[in-house]
Write a structure and sequence with these properties.
The complex is a heterodimer of chains A (about 525) and B (about 325).
Chain A: H1 13-28, H2 30-33, E1 44-49, H3 67-73, E2 78-80, E3 87-89, E4 92-98, E5 101-106, H4 120-132, E6 145-152, E7 155-160, H5 167-170, H6 181-187, E8 201-207, E9 211-216, E10 230-235, H7 239-247, E11 253-254, H8 262-267, E12 271-276, E13 281-286, H9 296-305, H10 308-316, E14 320-322, H11 336-339, H12 346-355, E15 362-369, H13 372-386, E16 390-397, H14 399-407, E17 415-420, H15 426-434, H16 448-456, H17 463-479, E18 483-489, E19 491-496, E20 499-500, E21 516-517
Parallel strand pairs in A: 1-10, 1-11, 15-16, 15-17
Antiparallel strand pairs in A: 2-3, 4-5, 5-7, 6-7, 8-9, 9-10, 11-19, 12-19, 13-17, 13-18, 14-18, 20-21
Chain B: H1 2-34, H2 39-44, H3 50-59, H4 66-78, H5 92-127, H6 132-146, H7 149-163, H8 179-213, H9 216-224, H10 228-266, H11 271-280, H12 284-312
Helix pairs in contact in B: 1-12, 5-6, 5-8, 5-10, 5-11, 5-12, 6-8, 7-8, 7-10, 8-10, 10-11, 10-12, 11-12
The chains are: A alpha+beta (about 525), B mainly alpha (about 325).
């Protein structure tokens, strides 16, 4: 949950800059100029990455922080537009001749780093492995696929069990990263330590928790790309240290920094700062399968008690957007009418509690993490909900510990203060977080109406049609108070003046394909 | 006689090490299993489901009874196989081979600093107890003990790396790759780590020297007309060498432990870093491997200390 795909916003660069505020503007002046600058080829980019990858094999890995590193080595069947996150062709173009069939046409002449062809057989091999290998973590993404057939040297046809228009977005994620079949046949699951893809850079080395090195793929299929000769990642989980390494000139870039480091970046004269909206949503998860949160009035009371605007100011230095549902306002499936359901209204919250039989307020147990940012969030939350008579009893621990206690079999705590990192397709977010039996639905229960709506959201290929279904889902979730979204967190990156061409994307996971050194 | 006594110490100590290793790895294993959180959830990734987690537990044998899991780890370890990381599948032995030199470099460098600075300070303070020098040294020593090393580390980075740009702020270079660059990277972390050590060496040396120098034996030496310098060097220091050795050996162990924090501040991919990451993900083969290696180091060090004791002071057996 600390990870994964965040999605699109349709903010223009101008709007992003306006949001980031005057202070950021000064640091961002380099950005709009990127387009005009002729990108220079050559040079090694040094990057501080926040986490050791869980695996360099897209099928067996699990952490959302992996993607930035995986994308350097693996290209995906489908890609997305940086600012809108709408799917667009990658290694392949797709079409739905009928609702239960998806056809992928692969671009001609692409080769893996080991020189083997990326053709229909290779794509079939990858999709079958992702679907069936016991160690594959992306099986659940491809459950709608009934069979994968090679229908031409460069054409693969997917027969579907049921219509699934989330597939393009899914194939822009792990499931669409193509690994060399020859490499997998030779190494099995050890391909994890010696990855071979078809991306802009080739794998050189990986030392756990220390660093990863990739070098230019001379045979890359996109002409003139990549600009950089290579990238050297230093893995520095302590983000203040990562930032210091950029200030000291040891790295050119540090990404996914917490808002509290913004003043430090601003003070350092030699840096560019980048901030941009993402799908990363700080929120309260409820276990609504049991008392007291099985009472809708209590869940609504929590939503009314939240002062989301103040939360963004107090915990994110303003680098965020108040969240009134699980999608930000810039998202194509955002529904404005839902956003007004829960104004900050402690009196209303108290009234709802009284109606639910808690005249003297209520005590809720809540799990939270013990890092600095989470502790600050929990303090603000305690004050806000406290004012409406909701007393929070916190248990703090590591992410692994607390989230397992809440989501897995133990079912500790009524509430969890955590985040949802977003997914390429909103239907994934709803299926993973609210469907019957879903892991991130702590109580595992779901209203049949909601279950049906989630299925429906994957039936049409037309985005306006889909947006209508998502609007219904969001309204259902928020009216029933199935969760309490609080705020979307902005991406914050620090770059040296030499690192040029970086474009943030709404997923909030950096891609380095446009970068070059000045 | 002397030789056989030394040999028997070594053999006895080695035998004692076995239960220490088994017990410590067992306790750590137990703690990892008792604490909530499961590596299977990490392995299941973003799109975890109950079924997927159960499946992973089965694939990695995490659903076997506690003792069976520990037993299979121990059995492999005894045969020289420390298994692989469950998360990244890197072999634990190669992780340790890569990380240990980074940690040892800063610990050894910190130890050298602690001795080179701490010993003269201790002697200066002890030769004139109650003097201005003594007070000064003891104030510094108290500060050294009181200042947290991670905080000192951050201050030093701010000053020496970010302002003056003399030394790197983060990272490490393998000593086998580039000796001087490795030292350059290790200087700041070693200084941060040494601050407490300097203080401790100075204080301990001072107090034991003061005791010796005010003893009747030393008064007799003065009466015999020996010059003060010869009394200090030949009689004073020789007598406190056993105390000093104890301090060094304890300090070494403590510094090894303190690297966990210092490595995080300086982003050094050492043993501390390794065990912290392992523990966060409940990646027990990694944690077990590090504990195993650390216990071996500490046991060897204690053994060495014991042998040195018997050389420095033949009365100790």
């Amino acid at each position: 949950m600390t990870n994964s795909n965040r999605m699109v916003g349709m903010l223009s660069r101008r709007e992003i800059m306006a949001l980031a505020g005057g202070a950021a503007l000064a640091g961002m002046t380099g950005l709009p100029a990127f387009a005009q600058e002729a990108a220079k080829k050559g040079g090694i980019l040094k990057v501080a990455a926040p986490a050791n990858p869980s695996s360099l094999d897209p099928a067996t890995g699990g952490a959302g922080s992996d993607h930035s590193i995986l994308w350097t080595m693996y290209d995906t069947l489908v890609e997305w537009d940086y600012t809108t996150l709408k799917p667009k062709p990658g290694l392949a173009k797709w079409a739905y001749p009928d609702p239960n069939t998806m056809v992928l046409d692969i671009t001609k002449g692409i080769k893996f780093h080991d020189g083997t062809d990326l053709d229909a057989e290779a794509v079939k091999f990858n999709l079958e492995r992702n679907r069936q290998d016991p160690r594959s973590n992306v099986k659940a993404d491809l459950t709608s696929v009934a069979s994968v057939e090679v229908t031409g040297p460069l054409q693969v046809t997917l027969k579907l069990k049921n219509p699934d228009t989330a597939l393009p977005a899914i194939l822009s994620d792990r499931a669409g990263m193509m690994v060399s079949p020859a490499n997998i046949k030779a190494l099995g699951n050890d391909t994890n330590r010696k990855p071979v893809g078809a991306g802009p850079w080739k794998f050189v080395s990986w030392a756990d928790n220390a660093g990863i090195v990739v070098t230019r793929n001379e045979a890359y299929w996109r002409p003139g790309r990549p600009y950089l000769d290579g990238i050297e990642f230093s893995i520095i989980p302590e983000l203040a240290t990562a930032l210091r390494s950029v200030i000291a000139g040891e790295n050119e870039m540090a990404f996914s920094l917490p808002a509290r480091l913004k003043p430090v970046i601003d003070r350092a004269k030699n840096l560019q700062v980048v901030t941009a909206p993402t799908l990363y949503c700080i929120q309260l998860y409820f276990n609504y399968a049991r008392a007291p949160l099985n009472n809708v009035k209590v869940r609504q009371a929590v939503n009314f008690a939240l002062d989301r605007q103040a939360f963004v100011k107090a915990t994110m230095s303003g680098l965020g957007e108040p969240a009134t549902m699980t999608l930000p306002s810039s998202h194509w499936a955002y529904d404005k009418s839902v956003s007004t359901l829960y104004p900050h209204d402690p009196a209303k919250a108290k009234k709802l509690l009284a109606e639910a039989g808690f005249k003297d307020g209520i005590e809720l147990t809540i799990g939270s993490y013990n890092d600095q940012d989470s502790v600050r969030r929990s303090e603000v939350l305690q004050a806000q909900l406290g004012a409406a008579g909701i007393r929070l009893k916190f248990t703090r621990g590591t992410i692994a510990e607390i989230s397992a206690q809440f989501f897995a079999t133990e079912k500790k705590f009524d509430v969890l203060l955590s985040a949802w990192t977003g997914r390429p397709d909103p239907s994934m977010t709803y299926a993973l977080g609210f469907d019957k039996g879903a892991y991130y639905n702590a109580g595992r229960e779901a209203d049949p109406e909601l279950v049906k709506l989630i299925q429906q959201s994957r039936e049409s290929e037309d985005l306006t049609e889909r947006a209508k279904v998502f609007a219904k889902i969001q309204r259902f979730i928020m009216e029933n108070g199935l969760s309490a979204p609080i705020a979307f967190q902005y991406e914050l990156d620090a770059l040296s003046k030499k690192a040029l061409g970086y474009k943030p994307n709404l997923l909030g996971k950096p891609k380095f394909e446009n970068m070059h050194l000045g | 006689m002397f030789q056989s006594r030394k040999l028997s110490i070594i053999v006895r100590r080695l035998l004692q090490a076995i239960p220490v290793i088994v017990l410590s790895t067992f306790i750590v294993f137990g703690l990892l299993k008792l604490v909530p959180g499961d590596v299977a959830v990490t392995l299941a990734g973003d799109n975890a489901s109950d079924a997927r987690i159960a499946e992973i537990q089965h694939i990695y044998g995490l659903d076997r009874p506690f003792l069976v899991q520990y037993g299979s780890w121990l059995w492999k370890a005894v045969h020289g196989d420390l298994s692989s990381s469950l998360v990244s599948s890197e072999s634990v032995l190669s992780s340790i081979e890569r990380c240990l030199p980074h940690t040892m470099l800063i610990v050894v460098l910190a130890m050298l600093l602690a001795l080179v600075i701490g010993i003269p300070l201790g002697i200066a303070a002890a030769s004139k107890p109650g003097s201005w020098t003594d007070g000064f040294v003891m104030t510094i020593a108290s500060l050294g003990v009181a200042i947290p090393n991670f905080w000192l580390g951050m201050l030093m980075v701010a000053f020496f790396s970010l302002d003056l740009n003399w030394l790197p702020a983060t990272g490490a270079t393998p000593i086998s790759e580039d000796f001087w660059d490795a030292i350059r990277h290790a200087i700041l972390p070693a200084c941060a780590l040494a601050s407490g050590g300097i203080a401790e060496v100075a204080r301990q040396l001072r107090s034991s020297l003061v005791e010796i120098l005010s003893s009747q034996q030393v008064r007799t030496l003065h009466a015999k007309g020996l010059p003060p310098s010869s009394i200090l060097w030949r009689h004073g220091l020789k007598n406190v060498s056993v105390n000093l050795l104890t301090v060094i050996s304890l300090l070494f162990n403590r510094m090894l432990a303190a690297t966990v924090v210092v490595e995080a501040v300086f982003a050094i991919p050492g043993m501390g870093n390794l065990i912290v990451n392992g523990a966060i993900h409940r990646d027990f083969p990694v944690v077990q491997g590090v504990v195993f290696a650390m216990v071996l180091i500490v046991v060897t060090l204690n053994l060495l200390t014991d042998v040195l004791y018997s050389i420095l002071d033949p009365r100790i057996s």
